[in-house]
Amino acid sequence: RFLLILILTFSFQSLTNADDIRDFEIEGISIEDSLLDFYTKEEIDKSLPYVSYYPKSKKFKVIRFDIKDSELYDSIQAHIKDNNKDYIIYAIKGVKDMPIDECLKSKEKVVNEINKLIPNAIRNDEETDYGKSYGNSKAYTNNFELDSGQSMRIWCTDWDENNELVKDNLWYDDFTVSLYTKEINNFITNEAYD
Question: How far apart are CA 173 and CA 162, in angstroms?
Fold first, then answer.
């Protein structure tokens, strides 16, 4: 049921053969939107003590919001620049806690649908260990990159439950759909883990 809803959401919230990742939304939110269009300043401020950063840089912070009334996701994560008063979203992720085996099956079906929706995207499939920043955690990722440098990622993470950062952040194996601007893609490639 989750998978059907996710596929239908992509189909209706996006343009067929999309050439701009902003055509896609996660819980109605897309990249380059302002977080203030979806949450009050007070709601954002409540989440700030719980932000996370990438291991090697604090240029971007990740703000998490739990979602109570969604069949698709348990939470969303908005990536904004640190100290940005406009709260412009450079990446948005929808996250659903899910056992890794179930996640990998769901991911395969969603990836097949994304191939149809953005056939001109360059697809890159990879496994990563996050540079061992989170112990023995692994991510199984399908990246779809457009000529604009924007991208969409669909992935499953098998978190190392013995890693202190994973325990501190209460991360569980999950299914994630994310949308990225060109700028944050460059940051993740060149600064976030190196």
Answer: 13
- Provide the residue-wise pLDDT of the chain in tens; the chain has 194 residues: 555 445 545 544 444 455 678 888 899 999 999 999 999 999 999 998 889 888 888 999 999 999 888 888 999 999 999 888 899 999 999 999 999 999 999 899 889 888 888 888 999 999 988 878 889 999 999 999 998 999 999 999 999 999 998 888 888 899 999 999 999 999 988 998 87
Tokens representing 50 are 């719980």
Tokens of 107: 């991911």
Q: 85 is written with which tokens?
A: 């008063």
Question: 49-82 burial, b if ≥16 CB within 10 A, otherwise e?
Answer: eebeebeeeeebbbbbbeeeeeebbbbbbbbbbe
| Number of other CB atoms surrounding residue 1 within 10 Å | 6
Considering the entire predicted model, what is its pTM? 0.82
Max alpha carbon distance in the chain (Å)? 43
Reading the block at residue 55, the tokens are 């291991």
Q: DSSP string of 118-187?
A: -TTSEEEEEEE-GGGTTTT-EEEEEEEE-TTS-EEEEEEEE--TT-HHHHHTT--SEEEEEEE-HHHHHH
Calpha distance 87→186 (Å, rounded): 19
